[in-house]
Amino acid sequence: MSLLEIHNLSLSIHGAPVLDHVSLSIDPGQIVAVTGESGSGKSMTALAVMQLLPAGTVATGSVRLDGHAVLNSPEDEMCRLRGAAVGMVFQEPMTALNPVKTIGDQVMETILIHKAMPRDAARTRAQEVLTRVGLPPDRFPLSRYPHELSGGQRQRVVIAMAIALRPRLLIADEPTTALDVTTQAQILDLLKGLVTEYGMGLLMITHDLAVVADMADRIVVMQKGRVVETGATDHLLRHMQHPYTRMLFQASGHRVALPAPPAPAPLLEVRNVVRDYRLPRTRLFEKPVHHRAVDHVSFTLNRSERLGLVGESGCGKSTLTRAILGLEEVQRGQILLDGQPVFTGHKPNLAVRRKMQVVFQDPFGSFNPRHRVARLITEPFHLLEAPPTGSERQHRIAEMLTAVGLSPDDAGKYIHEFSGGQRQRIAIARALMIRPELILFDEAVSALDVSVRAQILDLLAELCAAYDLTYLFISHDLSVVRTITDRVMVMQSGKIVEQGETERVFADPQHPYTQTLIQAVPKLPEIGQGAA
Amino acid sequence: MLRYALKRLISLALSLAVASVVIFAVIEVAPGDPASFMLGVNAQPETLAALRAELGLDVSRPQRYLNWVSGMLAGDFGTSYTYRTPVAQMVADRLWVSLPLALYALTLSTLIAFPVGIYAAARRGKPGDLAVMGATQLGIAVPNFWFAMMLVLIFAINLRWFNAGGFAGWDNGLWAGLHSLTLPAIALALPQAAILARVMRSALLDILGEDFMRTARAKGLSRRQALWRHGVRNALIPVLTIIGLQFSFLLAGSIIIEQVFYLPGLGRLVFQAISARDLIVVESVVMLLVFAVITVNFLVDLAYAAVDPRLRSRT
Amino acid sequence: MSRALILGAALSSVVVLMALLSFVWTPYDHAALNIPEKLQPPNAQHWFGTDHFGRDMFSMIMVGARTSIAVALVAVGIGMALGAPLGLAAAARKGSWLDELIMRGNDLVFAFPSLVIAILITAVFGPGAVNAIIAIGIFNIPVFARITRGAALSLWEREFILAARVAGKGAARISAEHILPNVANLLIVQGTIQFSLGILAEAGLSYVGLGAQPPTPSWGRMLADAQTMVSFAPHLALIPGLAIIVTVLGLNLLGDGLRDWLDPRIRVARA
């Protein structure tokens, strides 16, 4: 008998259908990955097993956990199962822990709430599981608070809470999505190890197909609340039946062809740039401590070149981006665009700003919700001495909207009328509006679903051919950087540790950190493109 | 933690210093000379000069400010212009009515608001919650002195459970004192309790949407257990802010409520002083009130740190 | 639109209309003494009864609404007109000496409840409606400065502000063009709440004699006059009290309703 048996599960929230006849099963010791894009219903499937669905949810079908029917079973019975028979790990480790309780108390709570053992034994067990997840009490005492731990460490605490009572089933909902790639690799290893050691079943929810292919024994592909394909990992990867599955895998490994860059002619020159931040003092009269976010960074970006900047969170790439944009002044070194400094006498240099634009990550926060698209995308006109007016302005708006694949009629709409992918297109239109010489893409495709991401990458490649773009592409996602750049720089702790031609760096990394980084990225399997 | 407390203490001292300058400056711009006001228009120049010297008015302004502050630090608030008695003694007597009243009301308000707010949050959208929300909406709209008059009408004049006014004094025992402060305290507390209950409810509802509440439920805690073990303590952080603010409202409110119940508190003292133009008494009472408010906010800051470990380690 | 919004708007507009109407018409002259008809309970001739001088309570309530609304409105206006720009400036220069100065100044004003400010002002300049306005207005400044700064700070972190900065716009322009329109809803809601608090504060100040002075009619002073007569003429206290409650309740409901209605997040959740 299977550990978890979901049969024909349908869900609706306030009448809106969310899941449509979903069936899947998990055996002990098995890892089943549920994957799909946002809105596929993969997280709702997990919450249905826990019976932690939002208010107003109506469920039909059956969910059997270890022989118990959990669907519509009484709340007090579910409380006995949660934490004991099934544990859960969530996506966002920064907010998944109660900030005012120690990690020891929070791990012990799982044990004590089920009255599984007396307090002393619970403390010992908490120490054991924390040690097992890589937080030994001699270095991470039970009295630590969550804010004293990093994101990866907090996720370990969440896992410790989930496995404290050795549940038969563990559910992990995007457990590594919020983490850096090297941390992700460690957490995935930990989860795999726990499954083998305890013989648990693992229901893993993730959008990342490389993680899926790397981890799962079985794969369940979902789209719009339906299971479109399911099968053993090896078999499914070799013989994909459903077009959506194929599209998903193709989009994940999407490659674009960039036009060849011309002979090098420097456009952006960054020389020995240093940016320090003062940290809050920890004692009253000590000397102020500085954190060096950018540490003697030098590089050159040539005209019509596509340069990548990769690194993990906190490596200083955001600070460097802001310094190049002239949003922050640097303490030492020089940033020159076309030979002119970004800052002159503590003031941003308008002549330089005119030649630069940026596309940000968040398609929802990048626009003032109160303005129409025409006003939003013409905001950079503010930089021009003689911005186009009247019909010329209308013409430019129409041209740019068309260039990014939207309709000129969209100019009169508000931003909330567009999807995430469309908003990112509008952001690109805004950046192109004044035909800047340099565009910075700051994690510009990181928040998008894989299929939308592939379309935006295609758009970028087209625009490179049409408008001869020069850009700096900042991202934590190595696979995207690999296809969309000519050259790449790797940043660690404020320093550029390696730079070179993209293919060369990826194929033959020289610096140990680059090697670790590339090693840590889960590999997308080669799939037979035409075979079906 | 110690560093945090020290930092707050320094900011407390600074606030007090600036506040004292402001109060002194405002009183200084008042027209007229207290000495000639006390002696009338026909006073002899020599007597006037003597009185000015006695009152400490014959020195420069900065000197007068320093004398005032150093006097206060030593417990000497000066001499009342009208009663010719030490202000410190007058204020101390009245403080023993106003301060217990404000604290009594704060206790009542908290004791009522916490359970009501938690009850409403736990039953969000259900009839119990709607009833609480309606009642608190009304409670916020009621002026406390009018509510006090209604309490007098019902419980003192009609039911005769309490005296309509006056203060029994603490000499007749704690119970007698508390008894005569009960109606005023209820009048002060209920409108504030309505505000506090709403804050408690909405703070809890915010917390209920947090990720860690879902984590707690995934561990096997029931809705109620999660609310009590993880919700309430986190909700205390915004609630404490409001309690701190409420103390200043209660203290100010008690000055008004004293008028309804004819209580011999700071309120009556200050209004008598205003009509008698006894500015040194006004100055001292205002300084005392501001001192109380700033001190309570300091205590609230310390309470924050006790509740929130992030504050303890950060600064 | 929610029921709270409709009820709140209805109650508030009744009070405002009554105040406006009192400029052209009241049932009786609110100041006319009529000793023979004193202390009448509410009846057909005098809907709200008469006071101890035989004055018509309904007329006094109508004219008193004028005082309450005027004092509270001007006080909120002062608070918003000075507080919101201070908050915007503090947020635009977060962490600078200007921000520090504004915020410490705020803390200081918070240490003076509006009644204490009124006591100080009255002690020096004597009582009056204008001094009540100043006292309540001063207390409102930090309220508006604080919520404006808080909301503006989170907006400054948003990417559309960064985009505006990349478009070369300065702090003042961004504050006016992007920040202010996005905090306007919040200011309107808070303004409604402070308006109701202002009415309560004005009533309290007038009750203890620090607010509007005779012959200006005021709800707070009507309550003070009623105090000695509450045992045999309870309507003298009941009616001004109910007038205050209805006004404040109406404004609070209006504020809550507006907040739910204007908050785009909540509207999206409902859609």
TrEMBL record, chain A:
SMART domains in the cross-refs: AAA (SM00382)
SUPFAM superfamilies: P-loop containing nucleoside triphosphate hydrolases
GO cellular component terms attached to this protein's record: plasma membrane
Keyword Secreted: no
Gene Ontology BP, a term: peptide transport
GO MF annotation list: ATP binding; ATP hydrolysis activity
Domain of life: Bacteria
Bilayer topology annotation: Peripheral membrane protein
Keywords in alphabetical order: ATP-binding, Nucleotide-binding, Transport
Subcellular location: Cell inner membrane
One Pfam match: oligo_HPY
Protein family membership: Belongs to the ABC transporter superfamily.
Descriptive protein name: Peptide/nickel transport system ATP-binding protein
Organism field: Ruegeria intermedia
TrEMBL record, chain B:
GO molecular function, one term: dipeptide transmembrane transporter activity
Membrane topology: Multi-pass membrane protein
Keyword rRNA-binding appears in the UniProt entry: no
Domain ABC transmembrane type-1 residues, every copy: 95-300
Pfam families named in the record: BPD_transp_1, BPD_transp_1_N
Subcellular location, record wording: Cell membrane
Residues spanning the membrane: 101-122, 143-162, 174-197, 235-257, 285-307
Highest taxon of the lineage: Bacteria
Family, per entry: Belongs to the binding-protein-dependent transport system permease family.
Name assigned to this protein: Peptide/nickel transport system permease protein
Originating organism: Ruegeria intermedia
TrEMBL record, chain C:
InterPro entries the UniProt entry points to: BP-dependent_transpt_permease, MetI-like, MetI-like_sf
PROSITE patterns, sorted: ABC_TM1 (PS50928)
Residue intervals passing through the bilayer: 6-28, 69-92, 112-139, 183-212, 232-255
Highest taxon of source: Bacteria
Recorded family membership: Belongs to the binding-protein-dependent transport system permease family.
Record domain ABC transmembrane type-1: where: 65-255
GO BP annotations, alphabetical order: transmembrane transport
Keyword Transmembrane: yes
Topology with respect to the bilayer: Multi-pass membrane protein
Pfam hit, one: BPD_transp_1
Subcellular localization(s) per the UniProt record: Cell membrane
Protein name: Peptide/nickel transport system permease protein
Keyword Hydrolase on entry: no
Keywords linked to the UniProt accession: Cell membrane, Membrane, Transmembrane, Transmembrane helix, Transport
Lineage of producing organism: Bacteria, Pseudomonadati, Pseudomonadota, Alphaproteobacteria, Rhodobacterales
Entry's Gene Ontology cellular component terms: plasma membrane
